[in-house]
């Protein structure tokens, strides 16, 4: 087995791979990230027994195995950090303001035949599933307030097959549950051992997972329209051009007056003026106008 740290990774090849990643995902790596790409891809080169990055670029771009290798590329180059109950102030805004408002609306419109009986939520860029399952737990805590005949559907999506397959299993370690109330862990998880917990089937059944690339409007259109989209800590990896594409796709996927949550360090400044920005303390929320 070769030592990949000795494999030559010229600037020219870095730019080719970097530009291909950008074209395929919207994720943009500047020159300072060359080492990060090298670190993330080196294991893949070793597994493939490749002796240089130029051959890897060729495999991605021109070979018959191109589409399989692109899936592997997405598994290798994405940053998948997440956890249950990540950014509690935002989740409080979801629970105390957005969810409450929706529950009030559906109580009033209960009699209207035209009002959709399914409230649809999308966790776009959900990684290993902690975000959509957190939302399912919060909703489940309000089950008694949901009028008969109404239901919540939650979709989680990502471009990495590895994280999606982990999300579908729903098994988590204690570290990712570090911000989760013990009572909620006892109520919504089965303990496998001291380290591993599996989400109970009532929560698991509320969420479906799909492989969706956020820069592809066609696959997003197939998902239909949503009342709430969470796209947190995803566009942080994009440049302004790909942010504009993704946000426009999310805009089209939202119903009128529906809500968009971004990560706490993300904003729509210079990206889109099509949303109304509402502030709850330090927590911004975007509403489709
Ligand atoms: C840092 S995680 C955020 C997870 C979760 N939303 C949270 O805030 O905890 C970012 C996720 O976005 C996904 N992602 C990156 N580019 C994407 C794209 N073009 N389409 C879909 N998902 C993408 C990555 O695979 C990764 O799992």
Automatic annotation (TrEMBL):
Entry superkingdom: Bacteria
PROSITE patterns referenced in this protein's UniProt entry, alphabetically: CHER
GO molecular function, one term: protein-glutamate O-methyltransferase activity
Keyword Ribosomal protein: no
Record's keyword terms, sorted: Methyltransferase, S-adenosyl-L-methionine, Transferase
GO biological process, one term: methylation
InterPro entries found in the cross-reference section: Bact_Chemotaxis_MeTrfase, Chemotaxis_MeTrfase_CheR, CheR_C, CheR_MeTrfase, CheR_N, CheR_N_sf, SAM-dependent_MTases_sf
Residues of the CheR-type methyltransferase domain: 2-289
Class of this enzyme: transferase
Reaction catalysis annotation: L-glutamyl-[protein] + S-adenosyl-L-methionine = [protein]-L-glutamate 5-O-methyl ester + S-adenosyl-L-homocysteine
Record-listed E.C. numbers: 2.1.1.80
PANTHER family: CHEMOTAXIS PROTEIN METHYLTRANSFERASE, CHEMOTAXIS PROTEIN METHYLTRANSFERASE 2
Protein name: protein-glutamate O-methyltransferase
Source organism of the structure: Candidatus Acididesulfobacter diazotrophicus
Lineage: Bacteria, Deltaproteobacteria, Candidatus Acidulodesulfobacterales, Candidatus Acididesulfobacter
